Amino acid sequence: MQLELVLQYLVAGLTYGTIYAVVGVGFNIIYNTTGIINFAQGEFVMLGGMTAVTLHRFVPLPLAIAGAVAVTMAAGALVEATCIRWLEKPSVLRMIIITIGVSILIRELALVSWGESVRALPYFTGNEVSSLTLGGVHVSPQVLWSLATCVLIVVFLWFFFQHTSLGRQMRACAANRDAAALCGIATKNLVTLSFVLSAGIGALAGCVVSPITYTAYNIGTGLAIKGFTVAILGGLGSSMGAVGAGFLVGVLEAFSVSLMPAAYKDAISVAVLLAILFLRPSGLFGSGAAARLKTA
Amino acid sequence: MLGSRYARVALFLAAVVAVQLLAHAAEKPFFLTQLTMAAYYTLVAAGLSLLMGYAGQISLGHAAFFAIGGYASGYLTTVDLTARREGPLVAVLARLHVLVPHADLYGGEALSFHPWAAFAVAVVLTLAVAWLIGVPVLKLKGHYLAMATLGFGTIVYSILLASESLGAADGLGSVPPFPLLPGISVGGGRAARVANYYVAWGLVALALLVLSSLVESRVGRALRAIHGAEDAAASMGVDVARYKLKTFVLSAVLAAVGGSFLTHFNAGIGPAEAGVMKSVRYVAIVAVGGMGSLWGTVATSAVLTFLSLRGYFGTLDDAVFGAVLIAVMLFSPDGVLRFDPRGALRTARDRLRGSGVAG
């Protein structure tokens, strides 16, 4: 394969990797505070993209994106308040089924309100054909937007969790919920916050990549599986790991297209997921502590 | 115990007869078509009920087993091996009447597998796949098991969708009827409607008999112990991994039987049968029926699947299943039949009071 072609695939992989990384990070935020894997995580991404497309008909692009993020955050809060908050120590099986139910409801609501058509926001700068040439590779400016957004999200989360009181409270809640509650931390509100946060970053990523990857009512399940793969691959609970794993899975997928029919592209990440679960449940970058929860 | 099990199955069969007579009396014989289809989906739900309710293991991939069974039967009974007639294997199979000639779509003659042979292959294939998937997957717990089975389901779905020889997005069509016994065959057609209805629900009754005797046996006690506390069960000498695997494989085979029969009944199958939403539906049915309640699951499956197939939920079909799933899991996680309104009210009141103090 020529070097340029390799680089071209690499860029495509990084673009898709951005969204997987952000979904993976979203899983981590909620998992850390609640121990729940939110199966509706992919739907937040869809909701963000679709809402922004609708809002963009009436308001300029930045406002539309801000509005979409706000709407999705509200949806995240609503989900937590109605389905999670008031349950007393629910079993894992129960939580899985509830979040799956939530994901179906969101998806069907999207189908009713937006129909089956595939949508996309316009390119933030330039259009479909405009490209920058970096080292012989043609890169759409939108790819740079996506990468920058991903970096921004990670930096923001790092700052939030390390240097703000609220972020520290959330970490305390993750480490030991009962102890955190004894110290006067309102753990229930932090769980709501984790849903809001995770919905918000999902929506933002959904907006930024939509010009390239498009969005439709049914993209959520696929994204959830890939995001989960990424979260596991990076070591559950580790945001940096999720970002690295996200790019890895994205690039793997992009190269798989050159080797086998595109229809099997989705099978790649699932194969990676299964392989990781069986061979190294702690993830590539994770520790053994999280792994003990997974296997008998 | 023994008496009550047979009594229940007898009661169940009486209900089956009553429904048929009711449909006849109401002059709605066409309802039997959807009821027959519902029976085959009920087989999947019954198997899953054993896996989820008794062994406590979730599977979001059971639609894939249903599709494997259906596609195996559909493909083998429609594939034309006339061109390879001279090959030694094909010749031997034809001599043994495993392969039978039949008229193809265009009036010509085709050589395909006998439905019984195809059915046997479908069951063995599903058994093998379930075993291969089950050994590694069942080592996982909770979320990981859910995601891994979901992933398995999506792989099967995308393979079916991408395979030209399996009809890609259109699926398989013109699958011949299944001559079950002389005079009785599983297939479409108005004349055979009543017979097919009884074949389908008779099969469900048979499955229930097997499953309920399993539940009340040593195996059932072991499964309940696993659900309750896996480590404790293991320390008491229960071979946890083996019981889980056997339940998984049994439920997968039941799903494949349902898929195989329904493919003959509908004369075809499409990739949507393997879709994630189908798997979620089976989980929803088990959840509503009450985890660990075979009879509740069968009743729920019959009602919900029938209503869905008749199109009563309209375009909100999937949304109904989603909403039902959430509502049941929030308010009555042991199933609607065990809903305790007074208990729910009490907890709701305590919650409100509790949050009032905290807030």
Predict the CATH topology of chain A.
ABC transporter involved in vitamin B12 uptake, BtuC
Helix proportion of residues of chain A, in percent? over 70%
Strand content of chain B: under 5%
Average the pLDDT over all residues of chain A and give the rounded result: 85
Distance between the termini of chain B: 52 Å
**H/E element string of chain A?**
HHHHEEHHHHHHHH
Kindly describe this structure.
The complex is a heterodimer of chains A (296) and B (359). Chain A is mainly α and 296 residues long. Chain A has one domain (3-122, 139-291): ABC transporter involved in vitamin B12 uptake, BtuC (Orthogonal Bundle). Helices cover 73% and strands 2% of the residues of chain A. Chain A has 12 helices and 2 strands; from the N terminus they run H-H-H-H-E-E-H-H-H-H-H-H-H-H. Chain A has a two-stranded antiparallel ribbon. In chain A, helix 1 packs antiparallel against helix 8 (187-213) and helix 2 (41-55) runs antiparallel to helix 3 (61-84). The termini of chain A are far apart. With 359 residues, chain B is mostly helical. Chain B has one domain. Helix content of chain B is 69%, strand content 5%. Chain B is built from 14 helices and 4 strands. Chain B has helices spanning 2-25, 31-54, 62-78, 88-95, 115-137, 142-162, 193-215, 218-228, 230-235, 240-266, 276-289, 294-309, 317-331, 341-358; strands at 99-103, 109-113, 178-181, 184-186. In chain B, strand 1 and strand 2 (109-113) form a beta hairpin. In chain B, helix 11 runs parallel beside helix 13 (317-331). Residues 355-359 of chain B have low confidence and may be disordered. The chains are: A mainly alpha (296), B mainly alpha (359).
